[in-house]
Amino acid sequence: MKVYLVHHVDALSKEQDPQRHISPFGQKQADRLGERLKALGVSPMRILHSDKQWTIDTALRVAAKLGASDKTEQTNYPINTDDAVAPFMAEIEAAKAGNKGDLMMCGHVDYLLRSASKLVCGDEKRKVVEFKPGNGTTVCLENKDNHWYVTFMWRDDHAPG
């Protein structure tokens, strides 16, 4: 099983857009990320996101590139900065136990950092990866023999052109 942790792309400021949709630049970032993930054969069974507009927009654009627009959904638990990662860990464990396929989470940096740490080393306070905020940084974690490993990372600012 694989878990893809996707930090949202560039969003408009609250002054530019009170709902904070992703910016035109963010749209390009999300599209490029979706194309890259498609080229890698990524095919999550579900693409989760928070209730914030910029994560919704990121998830929808990536899903469209993956041909998975029908697989996006908002989490039924909060995934903001200080929220507990336990519900997400339980969801991952249920998907793994049921052999239900891979999960993708489009979310917020602190929550994603703690989720990666919890999976890889069991301690959400020990940082095991770093996200560059606002550019669609993606971390792929894979479970082998009940151990989680970082198998790849993608940062938009490392992409050519």
Word description of this protein:
With 161 residues, this protein is α/β, with parallel strands linked by helices. The protein has one domain (2-130, 141-158): Phosphoglycerate mutase-like (Rossmann fold), CATH 3.40.50.1240. The chain is built from four helices and six strands; from the N terminus they run βαβαβαβαββ. It has helices spanning 24-39, 53-66, 86-97, 109-121; strands spanning 2-7, 46-49, 72-74, 103-107, 138-144, 147-154. Strands 3-2-4-1-5-6 form a six-stranded mixed sheet, sandwiched between helices. Helix 1 (24-39) packs parallel to helix 2. The longest helix is centred in the first third of the chain and has 16 residues, at 24-39.
Number of strands: 6
CATH class: Alpha Beta
Task: Give the CA-based shape.
Answer: globular
Query: What distance separates the N and C termini?
Result: 32 Å
As for the CATH topology, it is Rossmann fold
Instruction: Output the structural class.
Output: alpha/beta
The main pleated sheet reads as:
6 strands, mixed
Give the name of the CATH architecture: 3-Layer(aba) Sandwich
For the record, the count of structural domains works out to 1
- Helix count, DSSP H or I runs of 4 or more residues: 4
Residue share in helix: 25-40%
